[in-house]
Structures are given as C-alpha cells and as structure tokens.
Amino acid sequence: MASVIRIPTPLRRVTNGQETVDVNGTTVGEGLDDLEARFPGVKERIIDPQGELHRFVNIYINGEDVRFLEGLATALSEGDEISIVPAVAGG
Amino acid sequence: MTTMTRPFTPEQLMRYSRHIIMPQVGGIGQRKLLDAKVLLIGAGGLGSPAALYLAAAGVGTLGIVDFDVVDFSNLQRQILHGTGDVGRPKVDSAKETLNEINPDVNVVTHNLHLTSENIMEVIGDYEIVVDGSDNFATRYLVNDACFLANKTNVHGAIFLFDGQATVFKPGEGCYRCLYPTPPPPGMVPSCAEAGVFGVLPGIIGSIQAVEAIKLILGVGDPLINRLLLFDALEMEFRQVKLRRDANCPLCGDHPTVTELIDYEVFCGSA
Description:
The complex is a heterodimer of chains A (91) and B (270). Chain A has one domain (2-86): Ubiquitin-like (UB roll). Chain A contains 1 helix and 5 strands, in the order ββαβββ. Chain A has one helix at 28-38; strands at 2-6, 20-24, 57-61, 64-65, 81-86. Chain B is α/β, with parallel strands linked by helices. Chain B has helices at 10-15, 17-20, 26-35, 47-56, 90-101, 119-123, 136-148, 175-178, 191-194, 200-217, 263-266, and strands at 37-41, 61-65, 106-110, 128-131, 152-159, 162-168, 226-231, 236-241. In chain B, helix 4 (47-56) packs parallel to helix 5 and helix 4 packs across helix 10 (200-217). Classes of the chains: A alpha+beta (91), B alpha/beta (270). Chain A binds chain B through residues 8-10, 19, 54-56, 58, 60, 63-65, 67-68, 83, 85-91, and chain B through 42, 44-47, 131-136, 139, 156-162, 164, 178-183, 187-188, 190-191, 194, 196, 201, 227, 229, 231, 233-234, 238-243, 245.
C-alpha cells in the first residue's frame, strides 16, 4: 500500500532534497523501512538503536501523533500522509 | 480606576483607531491590550517581530528577557536591532526601538540568563509568556515554569526553513507532551551551526504575536492542542494534533516533575 512521507528540511539532505517520498508498507514501521531502503541512513535519525521512536522526533499520520495510536505498529492505509516532525529549538 | 473609567487620550484614539473600529477589538479590547502584561523570552529572531507587533498594538507592559549583546550575525533576521546597536545589550536596543514605535508601552528589561533559580520571580508579574528562546534547556525551563506558575506559553521555534508554533495552556498539554525529551547534544545542530532562513522568524514570531493578542482579547480560536508547521521552501502551512499526555511527567495524571530541575543537565548541555 502506498503512503506518502513528508520529510522535514533537516532530513532532506538524506533524501536528495525530496520533500515527499512515496513508500510501501502496512504499518508506520514498514513505511520507514521502505524509506530507509531508498535513502540509507535516514532511519537512524528517527528510530533509536532499540527500535523505538526517538522521543524528540514525532511521527503523525494524517495529523495524529502515532505515540497516541500504536506507535510504529500503527496501520497504514492507501493514501495516508505520514509527517516526520523533529523538535527544533531555534529562535 | 476600572477599565471603563480611564478614557483614551486623543493621540491614543488616533494611534489605535484601526483596532478600535473593529468589533473584535473595540475600545474595551484596546483597553485590555493596554492593561496586558506579556513577557518575551528572547529578543532575537522570534522575539523581534513579536515585540514590534505587540508594542505597536499597545500591549501596555512588555517584559523582555535576554542576556546577550547584539552581534553582526544577528542583523540578518533580528529586526529589533540595527547596525549601530552591535555590541549593546539586546534588551537595551529592544527597549529603544519599542519606545520609538509606541511610548505607551512600558518596556521592562531583564538582562539576565534565565535559570531555575530566577525564572519564577521573572515571570511572576506577567499573564502571558512568548517563548522565542534559542535552545532546548531554556525551552524546557520556560515550559515547566509556565505550567507550575499557571501561565499560558505562546511557543515558537525555527530551524533552517521550518517553523513551529503552538499555545500551551496549563492543563491542556505542554512541551513535554509534545517532545518528552530533548535531542542529545550534537544530534540537532543549532541555527548558529546550520543556519536559519532570515525571514522565517518573521513569520513565526508574527504568529506568536497574533496568538498573544487573541488570548488577551479573548477572540478567535487559539492554537491550543494544535501544532502549526510552516515550511518556507514549499510555502506550506499544516497542522497536527497536540494532546495532553496522561503520562507526562509535568502535566500528566501522576506528575514526577513538581518543581524546577537542572535543565542544563536534563538537556546534556552542562
């Protein structure tokens, strides 16, 4: 199933400048695996070595924070929009 | 004297006429603005446009916290300050600029480094805090202090071409609900290391001013429980939901953070 991942500007260095990437997968975790397969190195910026989401990076499906759903196991549907939103502190 | 018994001066009637004729503001709303006390954390990229618009709108008391001095590298975006201000304390430069725009505004300068020891005293007199700080330690400090002191925190943050804005109302979610822990040092470069698009804080800081004024007037829908995301490169605004986390150590059901902590240690920047 195809979903679209929106890439924040700090991660676009890894995605050759692409702001959106179409990925396949039935869960958020699988979608991120597909993103990693296309752009190696991107996943470690989102997932910690224990396989959990970094707590300073949020992932939203259609505007809902997956931490309040089922995390990386949250199911994806065709056309879902996944947003990666890292904490930023600049002022 | 009560709100209704203090008339506007003829100059004030002219200065604020474009607000006073709007039904959402009116004379009563303008008086609320003149009686309001707002604290700006940082007189930098975000604090500059926020302060300029809040002063122009006639927010009566504007506190500004900053311990820094103006540097040439600030001038690409920090529009409170000019070339002649380089080397001056930012709060002094800011006060001069704001007084020139609107002498009605009492600008209170706090030329200090915010810490767990002094923040409660600094924010005590203000009703709304506008966070335009530039590091994670200060953001968590401001967040926790605002919750503990029951102040609404109008939050803005920027990096590269991306901006974020939201309003944390105590009990309806906080920065720890949004991001439970900061990134480890070195994981996320600072604006000084990676850069920031100069106009970006103009957009986000102005949004913070909008939200602060809406809160003072009690009009519209504040950005509570919503995180506004701005992408300047794609010129897109989006919103995601922000919820109070029942497990939040600060504002959750079983809080473990009940007083201010050492934020330099928490953020690994000590």
